[in-house]
Amino acid sequence: MERIPPSITSSVALPTATPATATNTRDKARNNILFTWFAGSLASCAAVTFTNPFEVVKTRLQLQGELARATPNMVKPYHNVAQAFWVIGKNEGIRGLQKGLGPGYLYQIMLNGTRLGFYEPAKGVLYQVFAGRPSDAGRQILPLNVAAGGICGMAGAALGSPFFLVKTRMQSASNFAAVGYQHNYTSSLDGLRKIWREGGVRGLYRGMDAAMMRAGAGSSVQLATYDHCKSYISRNLAHRGLDGNSVLTHFLSSMVTGFFVCTVMNPFDVVSTRMYNQKSGSGGHGGALYKNPLQCFYKTVTTEGFFSLYKGFLAHYLRLGPHTILMFVFVEQIKALGKKYF
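That's the Mitochondrial oxaloacetate carrier protein sequence above. Prediction below.
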């Protein structure tokens, strides 16, 4: 874009925004954030309905053999994703495969409503500060997209931490093949009430730092990669019908995004699962096994080896891949309907 000489700008009266125009702009921005928050919440809840069974399988695979050195005689109730899915379904039924779905919905609203609703505003601020231009003017700047995604992901994880805590503990509970510490909550409300009685606010937000690391890593990669892939595909394949509004564009972008997110996020996911599921320390303060995420990383790797951080990777991808695809396809279609009718 050519720079306008000072002589021209000084001789031409540029239009200024009236108070009414500025108010309308602010209202439009607020409405856009609220609608995107709603679209992200609805889309992620729809997606997690289909992918929650793989989340249950992933949680149990990640807790299996916790802080135990692998030996030939080690008893493993879950051998792989397919067998774990079969064992849980056969012995616990559909309700077993959908454990934690209630708090899972609440967590999705807090996490994805926040990070999708505030991603564009956060990106806009970073572009203005570091690039001196709006985020939709010209090519995308990947590091700024990553930073915006990370910030929004950590904020959403912090808000939804109590629900993720209850979800993880409900998903790990099993009367047939128990792994990890068993909390045995009868419902989301029962879980929140027991945690509150045991540790108060600190108990409800135990493990939040691990969840923020997990969501920050995953969200920064997910939103930035999806943004970049969508922009690349629509820019280079628009002549084949793959523009920014194409469902196939959203699908392909999501497939690529899911793999990268899972690769980066799985170690943080293992740590987060274990931090949340561990037994409370004495007096309800802290955890019995890990004091913080760094200690959990250290104890997990030194006891079980580096690749223990990738336990449940396939189940994670089978959950995260379809979830990413469904969520972004749903959210794009909801936003398109919103623009059409509102």
